[in-house]
Amino acid sequence: MPSPSLLLRDRGLRATSNRRQILDLLGSRASHLSAAEVYDALRRTGERVDPATVYRTLEVLTEVGLAHVVDGPGPKRYGDGSEPHHHAVCRQCGAVKDLPLRGLADAARHIEELTGLRPDASGALLFHGLCGACSL
Amino acid sequence: MPSPSLLLRDRGLRATSNRRQILDLLGSRASHLSAAEVYDALRRTGERVDPATVYRTLEVLTEVGLAHVVDGPGPKRYGDGSEPHHHAVCRQCGAVKDLPLRGLADAARHIEELTGLRPDASGALLFHGLCGACSL
DNA sequence: ATTGGTGCAAATCCTTTGCAATAGC
DNA sequence: GCTATTGCAAAGGATTTGCACCAAT
């Protein structure tokens, strides 16, 4: 795994402290994080950061493929940009789980043929339902 | 197809003018509509409505299964509550297309076994990508 | 030195909520 | 008549933007 600084510079982005830390954070967490959660986590480490920068950084990381977004109820959630994968999202609390399924690639291709919608590089399929905690 | 009034009363909801019109609107449009679009459409017909009522109505219709929500970039989009189906969402403009695919039900079941996430009655799978207009 | 990034503050977009008035049953 | 539903106004959460300063290359 290349260093955060290299990952950034390879895509024409400056390797600032904020960006390196956010990249680290997304890579180290199993769960997906909202912008607010990223902000809180960075501040807890003593980093001087502004919410606006967190939003801008998450956006630019997503654009260059170092992160990915998952839409759902509440705020958007962000995950790292490593291997493409699919997601399961709780319709109530917005929690996101990764789905390491290859099988769905066929379904995705099928959909592309039908609709002309070009699949994302990042996880293309989203599964909606109620997570364990919310279905009690 | 039962009348809007009946659909509503069967679920314990009062059949108000707003609700009937919103229900009609969702049923008559092929595309999915944002709350703002629903509001505009109603006002154009001369109906006296408030945005807050549109939001409340769309929420309650979704709760009782007469409508369904699709999360994506920008505002939430709402569609009718008829047969369960899947969706394709443009990551850029948020446009929603229906996918009348039965085949994906297998994928959904597979995911449920793996994650314990219980599938929605409404379309459970979301496909993300760029629509024709946005990929130019 | 240049230019991309950042903090700060303000603005915007989308949505929810409290409450008195109204309309469905 | 009782109570769900509405309009209005105000608040709230999430995100974006303008701009002067700062820092990575």
Describe the structure.
Two copies of one chain form a homodimer. By secondary structure, chain A is α+β, with helices and mostly antiparallel strands. Chain A folds into two domains: 4-80, Arc Repressor Mutant, subunit A; 85-129, Dna Ligase, domain 1, CATH 3.30.1490. In chain A, 40% of the residues lie in helices and 20% in strands. Chain A has helices at 4-10, 17-28, 35-44, 51-63, 104-115; strands at 33-34, 67-70, 77-80, 86-90, 96-99, 118-119, 125-130. In chain A, the strands form two sheets. A three-stranded antiparallel sheet of chain A has the order 1-3-2. A three-stranded mixed sheet of chain A has the order 5-4-7, with no helix packed on it. Chain A is globular. Chains A and B meet through strand 4, helix 5, strand 6 and strand 7 of A and strand 4, helix 5, strand 6 and strand 7 of B. Strand 6 (118-119) of chain A pairs antiparallel with strand 7 (125-130) of chain B. Chain B binds a DNA duplex (25 and 25 nucleotides) through residues 9, 13-19, 34-36, 48-53, 55-57, 74-76.
Summarize the structure.
By secondary structure, chain A is an alpha+beta fold.
Largest interface: A-B, 35 and 35 residues
The biggest beta sheet of chain A is recorded as: 3 strands, antiparallel
Q: What amount of the residues of chain A lies in strands?
A: 15-25%
Shape of chain A: globular
Subunit arrangement of the protein: homodimer
- The number of strands of chain A is 7
Mean pLDDT figure of chain A: 86
What would CATH call the class of the largest domain in chain A? Answer: Mainly Alpha
- Structural classification of chain A: alpha+beta
Low-pLDDT stretches of chain A are none
Rg from alpha-carbon coordinates of chain A: 16 Å
Fourth CATH level, the homologous superfamily of the largest domain in chain A: Winged helix-like DNA-binding domain superfamily/Winged helix DNA-binding domain
* End-to-end Cα distance of chain A: 40 Å
CATH architecture of the largest domain in chain A: Orthogonal Bundle
Strand sequence of the main sheet of chain A, in spatial order? 1-3-2
Q: Could you say how many structural domains of chain A there are in total?
A: 2
Order of helices and strands of chain A: HHEHHEEEEHEE
CATH domain topology of the largest domain in chain A: Arc Repressor Mutant, subunit A
The residue fraction in helices of chain A comes out at 25-40%
